[in-house]
Amino acid sequence: MTDKNQTLTQALANPTRFMAFSAWLLPIVAVLAAVVLAIAVYMGLNSPVDYQQGHTVKIMYLHVPAAWLAMGVYVAVAISSFGLLVFRHPLADVSAKAAVPLGAAFTFIALVTGSLWGKPMWGAYWVWDARLTSVLLLFFLYLGLMALRSSIEDETEAAKLTAVLALVGVALLPVIKFSVEWWNTLHQPSTRMTSTMHPSFRYPLLVHALGFSLLFLAMHLKAMRNEILRRRVRALEMVAANRPTSDAAVLAPRTEGAS
Amino acid sequence: MFDFGPHAPFIWACYAVVVAVHAALIVWLLQDGRRQARRIADLEARGIRRRSASS
Questions:
Q1: B residues 1-55 closer than 8 Å to A (CB)
Q2: Set of chain A residues whose Cβ sits within 8 Å of the Cβ of B12
Q3: Where would you tag: which of A65, A210, A228, B31 has the fewest CB atoms within 10 A of its CB?
Q4: Is B30 inside a domain boundary?
Q5: A130: which residues sit within 8 A by CB, 6+ positions away?
């Protein structure tokens, strides 16, 4: 198979090629994210006041994109895990491992901003309704993925087991999505991808969502690059440890000091 | 533009949380990247190369 016949995924399967490609792409995405988020914040702060919620509608511009990304990042983790278990794609585990803390952060933001929105609107920071509880479970699932990986010393084994747990956890996504329809919840039902919203609220929300998505992409690329470098460090340390010279003896304490 | 009425503390708290979490993530990612690059440079300075790089 020639290079011309390769898909982008196949072409980037080589970590060295991915590092070169991401070094070019990362600054572009980061600058784009900053510009779009600056526009989003300006639009959000200047958006009209809702007739029922007043100014608290501005919280929606932060809460909803974070909630979308909480689920979207999990889909990315699940696809990466599938890619590891089925196709043994070299970067699949790197992608999954890099995305999990970011997904946990977006879920945390969704929970906290939702709580801060709930107090003035519902009179309570927290209620155990189906939507809130299922998103809290998603947050715990992210933490569980990180804990499981760090608790297993063998990296290959850790990657496989984490991928299996990530795929099992996909069952939570439809529960989150349809919780507002299956159960009687205090949380409002879906806005059908904002189609039921007035454009004066919809556009700031969509620009925020684009900005958050670009920011996630930039952070994910950076986290993947860091993980590839971490694996190179480990490979180099293995080379040093297997050397017949005294490198291995002097390497360990100096490396620890450098980290 | 910045007069958000009686619920202003809730709105500003949301912005503060979003900025703080994203700032923490960005700082962590940048520091981690620098740390890994430093470790590789340190190892390579001692003449340790990956097998694929040396062949």
A1: 1-2, 4-5, 7-8, 10-11, 13-15, 17-18, 21-22, 25-26, 29-30, 32-33, 35-40, 42-44, 46-51
A2: none
A3: B31
A4: yes
A5: A175, A179, A180, A182, A183, A185, A187
CA A189 to CA B36: how far, in whole Å?
A: 45
The reply to whether B54 falls in a domain is yes
- Closest chain A C-alpha to B23 CA, distance in angstroms: 11
**Closest residue to A105, CB basis, from B15, B21, B46:** B21
Predicted complex ipTM: 0.90
Q: Which amino acid is at A214?
A: L
Tell me the chain A residues in contact with residue B43 when contact means C-beta distances shorter than 8 Å: 233, 236-237, 240, 251, 255
Q: Tens of pLDDT along A46-101?
A: 988 888 888 889 999 999 999 999 999 999 999 999 999 998 888 999 999 999 99
Is there a domain that residue B55 lies in? yes
Range of the domain at B36: 23-55
